[in-house]
Hints:
Elements: E1 2-5, E2 12-16, H1 23-31, E3 49-55, E4 58-64, H2 74-88, E5 92-98, H3 104-113, E6 120-125, H4 130-136, E7 147-149, H5 158-169, E8 185-192, H6 198-206, E9 224-230, E10 233-239, H7 252-266, E11 270-276, H8 283-295, E12 298-304, H9 315-326, E13 335-337, H10 347-360, H11 366-379, E14 390-397, E15 401-407, H12 415-429, E16 436-442
Parallel strand pairs: 2-4, 2-5, 5-6, 6-7, 8-10, 8-11, 11-12, 12-13, 15-16
Antiparallel strand pairs: 1-9, 3-4, 9-10, 14-15
Amino acid sequence: MLRSSIKTKLPRVVILGRPNVGKSTLFNRLTKKRRAITDPTPGVTRDPVEAECTIMGRPIVLVDTGGLTLDKEELPRVISEKSLEALDSADVALLLLDAVQQTGEDEAFIERARKYQKKIILVVNKVDNEKREALVFEMYSLGFPEVIAISAEHGKNIDLLENAIITRIGNREQTHDEEGSHAESIRIAFLGKPNTGKSTLLNTLLEENRSIVSDVPGTTRDVIEGNIVYKNTRYTILDTAGIRRKKKVTESIEYYSVNRAIKSIDESDIVVLLIDALEGFTEQDKKIAHQVDKKGRGLIICLNKWDLTRQLPNQFRAMQDRIEFLFPYAATIPLFPISAKNGDGIEKIFTTAYRLFKELHKRVETSELNRALSTWMSRYHIPEKSKVKIKYMTQVGIHPVQFVVFVNSTKGFPQSYLQYLVNRLREDFNFHHVPIHIEVRPSNKQ
């Protein structure tokens, strides 16, 4: 049975503030990683971005939130609401102000935050010279008991802030997973074009509104993580930005978002490519699938919004044939319909991902492999005119699955024979659904 998100009991430290005060820069500074996108454009961060990190030897969950604004438009309003929800669940909140400029938005949200005063540390950012240090004393008039001046960009006084955070946390519980440790952990990245339902799927799986869902293309910018337990296996889900064609990406922020989405392929075991079933498989989907194959990751294709399609006879088979026509490798890729909104078919993602994960980590002994190779070669000979002779074969990698074939000469090795070897590996050693990469090398053995 599918369980919702893992409830961590690590202390939660939430960073809040209006757009462009340096929240994401501080988040990256404290996590010591470039997890959140930083850009001078206000409102870059939209969904809360979480990361487990260690501060002064103490594990915590750090949360970067979207900018608090007074804008009444739907998307800015939802971003602000989610930021305040994060404040409500926080153990410690870092309310960030700009040392030079305070706005009406700052004042409005300082007032809204007063009921949380006991958990708030007022952090004055961009204090990187003596003139700005003098401005910090004015912040004590806001009535918060603790005010710390920092420069997130340059690392100034970050040690003081870390000490204040740990002091506030005190002796809170530090247990990680309420269900105990899990034998395996599998990372799954959701990829696809904008508006294919990636964020909706994450929210349905977690049974909470972790990612903002909107009809506005490009709503998701950072990579949003969530954890699921299914049949005693932990799955970390990465919700990524929608990937559009290069020529349609005009904003630098979207460029970084798309890069992060592509990078998530490297950071995952399995990629779920979400296709809008109403639109069908496109050239852009083919390019994403090719990148996953190139990186040697497991791939699952989900036809989302299947509940909205016309239920015609053989409809799924027709769509499957279309995908295999556009992307021949798709014949080996698990493909099935789902409804992210209704939850139909989503448990199959986990059973399939687990099977692919096992294939990615399968290792074949060299002796066993070469016995099979001898049989394969006797069934299908390399053309004599090529003058190529295979010496032996060995597996050199898992995740991605990699083999090397040693030959007397690489010149003239038939590409068709490589495909034959791939097919035999799939059938005889159960690498049915994952990419197999074979390199041909010259052998020094005579």
